[in-house]
Fold these 2 entries.
Entry 1:
Amino acid sequence: GEEVAQTPKHLVRGEGQKAKLYCAPIKGHSYVFWYQQVLKNEFKFLISFQNENVFDETGMPKERFSAKCLPNSPCSLEIQATKLEDSAVYFCASSQYSGENTDTQYFGPGTRLTVL
Amino acid sequence: GESVGLHLPTLSVQEGDNSIINCAYSNSASDYFIWYKQESGKGPQFIIDIRSNMDKRQGQRVTVLLNKTVKHLSLQIAATQPGDSAVYFCAENIDQAGTALIFGKGTTLSVSS
């Protein structure tokens, strides 16, 4: 597609439950990024993929967060045993590969996760 | 740690005025800078970008200025319209494929008619 798609739009979970978020990047884009935005404020980088391979996972909380980008499937971000502090909007972005330089990251509409 | 920051959290202007939104960055290694617009309930929308080999770049009604000496970035919006009301974020990264963005805190622009 021509836009990054994210599902669901809203997700509500009780503390300790699992949450799974999905992202379909723009067709033809090689890179996928996940960011977390808390309280409409700063964005925190979580993880990026180059096709189905993890490219940079320096921002991922190792214990409860995991992510995948499998061929012919939407990318996913999963949070095991959610905590109140995980409440945030999670954005997915994608960019194409056009050489050694960075390329524009295009963002999806986000998934708002509320942990009760 | 190093991060991109913005000088003012809010900016209020009248319709038709020119708006200037400022951003200071501290990572000397950053060489790619972007401005995004985020409307309520939506994801960041790309506005304009600039690489460190330039000091000015113009788009439609928008201009980005980069001053590497003082590590300062600004976004100028000409003839601001009510539809420009949003939160504006500057972001930076190293100009290499696949590099993650570092975002600043955001400036809320309010345009009154």
Note: Chain B touches chain A through 27 residues (CB under 8 Å).
Entry 2:
Amino acid sequence: QQQVKQSPQSLIVQKGGISIINCAYENTAFDYFPWYQQFPGKGPALLIAIRPDVSEKKEGRFTISFNKSAKQFSLHIMDSQPGDSATYFCAAVFGNEKLTFGTGTRLTIIP
Amino acid sequence: DTGVSQDPRHKITKRGQNVTFRCDPISEHNRLYWYRQTLGQGPEFLTYFQNEAQLEKSRLLSDRFSAERPKGSFSTLEIQRTEQGDSAMYLCASSPTTGGGTEAFFGQGTRLTVV
């Protein structure tokens, strides 16, 4: 049972553009929503995270927007750079325990 | 390097053989997690430990899989009688108790290929 749905599966953005990745969840008990970045041959690395009592969180060029009523959240990467090319996973956590991941978005930034 | 360490990085084995992977977490982290990631998918939870106690196991963890963390430090994941469907990346993560899964730090994984 997939509890976190992620789209798109792949995304191509021009350098300097905005990359947007969307996720939706089903379980309203989830109380923490992190985003992970994964490069080929590496493990996922925590990028940014948000709790449902906040509608937006920004860290540098990365912003999470959260819509609790719609059970949706998204990652925005501003001024996208070639070094941002990676696979991005949204995730959800209940009670400080295991991560439930989305299926991932392969992001490619082109010059 | 004080990150999560996994060994080996790659393992090729014949169907039916047993394999064992090792994970060394960040030293002050109480929690240790095992995930499995297949190509084009997100990591899927297998099991986790709080110190030496195994607190939860996923239904993905069939009876051919066993995980241990005997002294609350490193952990091993053993797969008996491997099948081709076991081919995947096996990821280990650790976190401090207060952060739980929200502040999990991942190792680079062990890529298993069953031929």
Note: DSSP finds no helices and eleven strands in chain A.
